[in-house]
Write a structure and sequence with these properties.
about 140 residues; about 80% helix; mainly alpha; single chain
Length: about 140
């Protein structure tokens, strides 16, 4: 899990850099294609914090998702990350697919985007296994 956290952190920084670079150079046509980099970067940053919480708080695996974890609102908010990822997974795949077709980025960037989607799917499978979607 720590390696996944490192991967998500590195790709979040890379995709944020690509978003800023393309926004400053006004390369992205249409501009919505560049927005995919920002969404993936913010999702990865959120997943870095979520994986950190999973590594440091063992009760996440054993308690119900709707259970409050003390007075820290950030930890209580992170309970809903698997649900957010589940709802946003298909639109994220569609956005990445459109970005690859419209912009045709470098092969390395395309590989990172699709590897990111595969890891998101693995996180969703793990969240389903530990019943992290029971938020109501």
């Amino acid at each position: 899990m720590a390696a996944g956290m490192l991967f998500y952190c590195a790709t979040a920084l890379l995709f944020l850099f690509l978003f800023v670079k393309n926004a400053l150079q006004r390369v992205a046509k249409p501009p919505a294609a560049n927005f995919v980099y920002l969404v993936v970067a913010m999702t990865n940053a959120m997943l870095v914090y979520f994986i950190f919480l999973l590594l440091s708080n063992t009760p996440f695996f054993y308690l119900e998702s709707s259970f409050g974890f003390g007075a820290n609102p950030w930890i209580n908010l992170m309970v809903y990350v698997p649900l957010f990822l589940l709802v946003g997974f298909v639109p994220l795949i569609i956005g990445v697919n459109r970005l690859v077709k419209i912009r045709q980025p470098a092969v390395f960037i395309v590989a990172l985007l699709w590897l990111n989607m595969v890891l998101n799917l693995a996180l969703l499978a793990g969240a389903g296994y530990w019943h992290m979607f029971d938020v109501f």
